[in-house]
Every structure is written in C-alpha cells, then in structure tokens.
Amino acid sequence: MSRSLSGRRKILNTTHKSPELPRAIIKKQAALSLIWAVPVVAAIVAGILIFQNVRKIGPAITIQFEDGSGLGANQTVIRYRGTRVGSVKSVELTRDMRLVEVHARLDRSAAGLAREGTIFWIVRPEVGAAGVHALETIVSGPYIEALPGNGNVQKKFMGASEAPVIKQSDSGTEFILRAPLVRSLGPNSPVYYRGLQVGEVQYLELGRDSTTVSIHVFLKPNFAPLVRTNTVWWNAGGINIDWHLLLRFTMTAENLRSIVTGGIAFATPNEPGPPAPPETIYVLHEKPEEEWLAWSPRMNITNATVSTPGTSPSFDFNDASQSQKQP
Fold first, then answer.
1. Residue 3 resides in a domain
2. What b/e sequence results for 300-319 when a residue is b if at least 16 CB atoms lie within 10 Å of its CB, and e otherwise?
3. pLDDT tens-place string over residues 57-114
4. Is position 16 within any domain?
5. How many domains does the chain have?
6. What is the phi/psi pair of residue 109, to 5°?
7. Cα separation of 261 and 200, whole Å?
8. Do residues 226 and 299 make contact, with C-beta atoms less than 8 angstroms apart?
9. Does the N terminus or the C terminus of the chain have fewer Cβ atoms within 10 A?
10. Is residue 310 in a domain?
C-alpha cells in the first residue's frame, strides 16, 4: 500500500512539473553613447573659437572727446588705413560732465596704437567747400580714425576735434601761396594746370602777422617740374563775370567743380625759370591776366598718373575691314 502511494506521488510530480521560463539575454551597452559625442564636439569647437578671440584681443584704451555725437557702444569702430582695428565698448560722461569718455578695445594687431603721440578723431560726413567727405558714414555711422605715435605705452588719450594735417612730402612737392584773404578755398581744393588737376590744397593757416593767409598746396611728384621760380598763381574758383556793353559778358571758371569747391591755377612763362625748390612762397592773385593764359612753355614731365595706350597693341581699322571682306 505504501509503495503504491509513493509511486503515485512520483507520477503526480512528473506530470505536474512546471515548464522552465525563458531567460532574458542582457547585452552590455557601449561605454560612451553617440548622443554624448555631439555636446563634446560642440564644447571643443566653442573652446577653439574662444581661444582664437582671446588671441585677437588687444589693449583697452580710453579716449575723451568734447563731442561724442553718433558714437555708440558695440557699434562704432576704430579704423587705421581703412581697416577696422578696434571697437567702442562703452560711452559715458566724465565726472565733471564736461567731456565724453569712450572706452574701447584694440585688436592685438593694432596694439602699437596704444602709444604716446597717437591721435584719435571722429570721422563724420561733411559737406564743405572742398566737396563731400566721408559719405559712407551716413549709412554706417561715424567711426574713430587713428594716426599712430611712437612714444611710450599709453592707455588714456584726448581725442582731437578735427582730423590732423598729414604732410606727404615723400610723395610730392609742397608750395606756399599767400593772399590777403580767402573766399572759396579750403582743404582738398583742386590745383589746375591747363585745366588738368595736378594737385590739391593741403591746409590753410593765418600768417604770423595776421595780415595774410598762407595756403599750402601739394603737387604730385610728376607735375612738380611745371612749377618754376617765375610761375604765377591765381584763384580759379567761383565765377568771375565781366560785363561789356550791358548785354555782353564773359564768365570764367576752371570747371564746374571749381565753381562749387574753389580751386587754384598756375602758369609758367614761355621762357621758364629754374625749377622751384619745395616750400617756395608765391603770391596768389585774384584773377589771371590775359597773357598768362596764352603762355605755353615746353617742359618735359612724366604722366605717371595717367594710363596711356602706348603699350597696347595697335589696331588698324583698314586692315580689320579688309579681313572682314575676305571669304
């Protein structure tokens, strides 16, 4: 009886035995997912950009101006030789409220501007006797121009109220004209010879005795030999009207530009004197005499500023027409 019971239990145990459950297979994940690669690469790129910008950063300087109209933080730039070399970071008044203080940052390549003797001035659009100046600032706004000095390192500057006079004696010749008064002349007014512009007015200044005005003209190097010791100069700007018999009149002006901006012309006699040395002083006449306009001396010069077709291949219209007729 006991054996039969134990046999049944074995049979029951074998018939009611539960099946084995499936086992999950766990795969090991990669140590670094691709999702984390994106921010890592972005951080590396940002670090490179920051490093490059830090390398470009130059010294911080402070410039004080009497008038800061048009200047704006992160808008106004500093230029030298037409290239941006810095920018304005903030604009504020001084404690006594008498000046405008501009805090700017120079580029690393322009660190040499932070030296004693450097001149800073604001360039704004101007319409004057010499024409329109800095027209591009109407759209872009004023900017600060720099003229480098050669002194010791300096971080604080007093800005100039106007652009300094830059002499360029190495690329031309300067002559001085004196007149009792000046009507239409100004800086950059043209200088003509036989109707061709050969130079311009650099600047004007009052004589030491305050009785005359000294006009400094600058001629291009290839035209300087036209000026001799017996050369005469006259005012070619504006309109000179000479009335004759009420109905007839003559109007003289070098060209349309000289009517608006003023100008100077000169002539040399048919028997020219020796070449005039630089800074020779002449008298500026109000108008020319008739014989001056008739002078036509022979003086050899080099038209270095004029492109001539001398080196271009010649073109014969007759040969061209004959070649077109050939089949």
1. no
2. eeeeeeeeeeeeeeeeeeee
3. 889 999 999 999 999 999 999 999 989 999 999 999 999 999 999 999 999 999 999 9
4. no
5. 2
6. -70, -20
7. 11
8. yes
9. C
10. no
